[in-house]
Amino acid sequence: MSLRDKVEHAIQNQPCTVKDLKARFGGDRGADRKVMEALDSLVHDAVICQRSGVFFTVRSGRAEKALLCKVVKLGKNFAFVMLEDETSDIFIPGRFTRGAMPGDEVLVEKFEHPRVEGSDEGAILAVLTEKNDLVGTVRRIEGRLKFVPDDCPAISMQLMRDCEGGAKDGDKVAVEILMRGNRQEDHRVGVAMRFGSSDEAKRCAKALLYARDIHTRFPDKVREEAKKFEDMTVSEKDCEGRMDLRALPIFTIDSAETKDIDDAISLTRTPEGGFELGVHIADVSNYVKPGSELNEEAFNRATSVYYADQVVPMLPKSLSNGICSLNEKELRLAFSCLMRLDKDGNLTDYRFVKSVICSRVKGVYSEINALLAGTADAEIQAKYAEVLDQLPAMKELYGHRARLRTERGCIDFESGEVKLILDEDGHCIDVKKRTSGESEAMIEEFMLLANQCAAHFARVKQIPFVYRVHEEPNGEKLERLHALLQACGINDHFAKDVPTPKELSAILEGVRGTSFEEIINTGMLRCMSKACYEEKPKGHYGLVLKDYAHFTSPIRRYPDLAIHRIMTDLLSGTDKETMAIRYTDFAAQAAKQSSEREVIAVQIERKAEDCYKAEYARRHLGECYEGIISGVTQRGLFVELENGVEGFVPASSLTATGTTLTEGIRLSDPVSGKNWNLGDSMMITIVRADVNLGKVDFEVAPENKQ
């Protein structure tokens, strides 16, 4: 049989890439050339065709049906791939995965007759682009060191003996696939980087960053460009053409550890009894210019990433903690939103100006809360002497704004955020629920108002922009919400198909102080659509606002920096037509990139937090605590402790006689009649904590067992 016939026969059996064919029939330069000649001949004679680098037999018609996809999830005996347009996914049975890994770009053929009617199922025809860098853990399995990827802990791959890189059993590592087999287990990998023990949350967090290509170190060109901002101060020349607001008693309010201060506030009474509120934001766009290395890197990062006591900043420290940060007693360039409100707190007018400011004091939430409550000591009162007179007016204005917020039906979810307490070695020694006082809520409301003004400004001026969009929940999420409310015995009838925010707020208020409060809060939050950035103004469902954007944090969010740049150009006198040409594509690109990077940042922050919580739980194995049942499944219960640590109680730990699931809110033991209901409290014992996976396992405390 000629080489041409062999190649044709191989392609008849299975669509192939050039790499597949060279591996099978080539081997050296001459043989590889002959493979290419055979392919060219078959294509010329219309025996085979090619799509996206994969060769098919013409008569099969499979090329036309093949779909470009990306592998998004991998299990022991299955995979899921996402269509190129991200509209839907396809299930791939294990024998049809061709050894593909998460992140691989693949060509997929859908089955005409899937096993489950109405589902999408198919086979991977070929791997087009390989993602060969993975993060996971080294484990000793059957006497050999193997690599277990984080994306699929059910499989393991052989570590090549001369490429172990000194890794030990239990190490968190990054590897590269050096040789691919036909199955995932047949791949051979080599260690590219060691992070340290997978039992340490800080090592796992670094691996999470590495896996999503988030770098703590800035590229050399960016660091070189940032050097010119080190120890920079604002000169009088820099202040030319700006509104001079140095006489205003402006100050900042943040947490005590904050070093990158984006925003400052001021408040004065108007002669009519109303208020003039100033929200003054760091003018980052004055320093980060289009076309610069700093801008390119900021666009790519799109957001700062915060976890535990660490931050991976969007901008180098010479800007984020230096010339852009609104530090106490230092002259700074700002972009100010000056708003006028009537005596009842209604917004009547606003304007945006480039300004120069000087913050009088670095306020701290806890200290401001003490001042507002009248419990601050003399030392704190002396610290805030220059701005004390503003606080009663701020409290009054916030009261009006909070009332208006409630009247329009804004949904106020409890955040459920926790504070991780670390020791000097970076190990988690305690977990506490974050509490928020009046000053935190006040600042949030004032920032929200400035964000609203920025979006209104852009919509009225009809300029390209990056809006913060939150759409109403879709049908599938509303079904889950209805099921949750019915299971909890709560009236789920709404006036229209989609509930209004006010209706949802009424439900939250109705369960406040009951055992269902946290369950409903969390369940309703999960049923919400995900907020994102878009170039079209679609409003914000949760905040009940027609206009919303992110204007107030340009040090740590690229969308804010982007709209500062756009607004600055318009305020300088650029006409609307030029604005459209200059910024339409930019706004769309910034919105897309920022939305994607925000999702990645949130995923990392949540996974890292889970690792730290598990590290804390490992210190308390065998100890008993009271928790609330936060989730009910056929397999068992999820229980959340008072400090926010959540663990899983397997059904086998509840009773030896078996359980039945009722409506997703109750497990029952038919023999004893014992029930475990969503929202019930129960005593548990911490029995396992896997820092690497961020998972904690509980059992029913001994005295509570049947």
From TrEMBL:
Catalytic activity: Exonucleolytic cleavage in the 3'- to 5'-direction to yield nucleoside 5'-phosphates
Pfam families: OB_RNB, RNB, S1
MF terms (GO), sorted A to Z: exoribonuclease II activity; RNA binding
UniProtKB keywords: Cytoplasm, Exonuclease, Hydrolase, Nuclease, RNA-binding
One GO BP: mRNA catabolic process
PROSITE patterns registered for this protein in UniProt: RIBONUCLEASE_II, S1
Family annotation (InterPro entries): NA-bd_OB-fold, RNase_B_OB_dom, RNase_II/R, RNase_II/R_CS, RNase_II/RNase_R, RNase_R, RNR_Ribonuclease, S1_domain
Family: Belongs to the RNR ribonuclease family. RNase R subfamily.
Protein name: Ribonuclease R
Source organism (scientific name): Faecalibacterium prausnitzii
